[in-house]
Amino acid sequence: MRRIGVLLALLSCCAFLCPGLWAGEKGKRRIQSREQSVFAEVKGLVSRDKMQEVGLYEAVDGGETLISKTRVGANGWYGFAVEVATPGFYTVGGEKTSERIRVYLEAGMNAEVNILEDSLVITSRNSPENLLLAEWEGLFEPVRRRVDHMDYIFFTYKELFPYYMEFLPQTEAFKSKIHCRNRSFAELLKQTVDYDVEYFALRALTAIKIDRVVRKGCRPTLDEYPVYYKTLVTKDKLKNADLLKQPYGTDYLEKYTTLALQLENRKSTIADQLRWVPCDLLKAEIVLRHAGRAKTYEKYDEIVTYFARYLTTESHHRRMDELSAKLYVGNKGDKAANFTYPDRNGKMVSLSDFKGKIVVVDVWATWCGPCRKEIPALIKLEKEMHGKDVVFIGVSVDEKKDHQKWLEVLDKEGLEGVQLFADGWSQIVKDYKIKGIPRFMVFDREGNVIMIDAPRPSEPALKALLERELDK
């Protein structure tokens, strides 16, 4: 059960202001101290039975990413020091989302959250930003509980919708009182208020509720939605990626687009969902969410290939690589897991560029003795296959620092043709579950697997395999 407790200091100024603590010379020293540090601290007291660890999560890409865990000390205290490059939200607490609370952190800031038996307490020993955030958390918590806590399982939409509509004016009243010298935080908090209210309104539509009279599940029909829901979605609403600063950002996106299509009486396909999201970064999150649900590599590849124009950032590609490595098996006849690396001139070359040819891939490194031992046999095999529909691709997993050494070995050993530099133990290794090198792999003209642990060039079996494929 998640309850928010807030212990506020009695300030001489308005509870919604954050000036007094920062005034005068003392304030200047505190600001200077904050600027000089790149770390923020989170600490607190735990009195919850059986809670031995506390996690700290960063709100990134519209979700919560665990960045650190710490054990609760014998005295009940826990603490973190985290490097904060960009100010933003973090969550602290237990393993379940319902056991965590947001805090705002920037370099040099300290936050204190106590984890008590039935509540999470943002104490009075916090920054003005977190005291403001705590005010909102305390105000909104009764609404949150009525939406998705089992305490209110009989609080159906018949009671919930009127309750929600009566609460909405309080959000505007709260936002009107937000004044803070940290203007970027003030704007973030105003956005947060809007997103929180909308997100839990969306959750209310599918919340687990039981009609106490008939003792059956109870959800509203479209005709029973308040007018509010029709005003909540508009096609020009999500123009930027601010939503991804929230720990529930991607879940909001899914529920938002689902409602939009429900109002249109359309099925929830990826393409239809994307029509309701103007921002490409948000579109990418929808694509990745669907790709993450793919049961096979082929389905995953179909999704990310079709919507590749939205998957542009380092974060997108990292998560794509993780999904690819998880799904890819590489059985005979399976579609090859594609890879793209630079050649010696910096040109990006992909495995898929050679469709129509039989492809032999050699995964190797300059420091690998057995790899170097295979080079004469490899060069001999390449010459024997010259003029036939066979392409040989060398993929070096040397580290970036050894790039020049790789170029020198290519010249010294006479390695020509397609030579690519993978810059370390990278995606090709993860996809094909390579534990040791050299690894030779063979793919057919359609880009499907023939063998991902093929014989080495020094073994006659590799040449025989290629000749059989050429005769097909």
From TrEMBL:
Keyword list, A-Z: Cytochrome c-type biogenesis, Disulfide bond, Redox-active center, Signal
Domain Thioredoxin as annotated: residue spans: 330-472
Main location: other
Subcellular location: Cell envelope
Signal peptide: 1-23
InterPro entries per the UniProt record, alphabetical: AhpC/TSA (IPR000866), Thioredoxin-like_sf (IPR036249), Thioredoxin_CS (IPR017937), Thioredoxin_domain (IPR013766), Thioredoxin_ResA/DsbE_sf (IPR050553)
Pfam family, one: AhpC-TSA
Name of the featured protein: TlpA family protein disulfide reductase
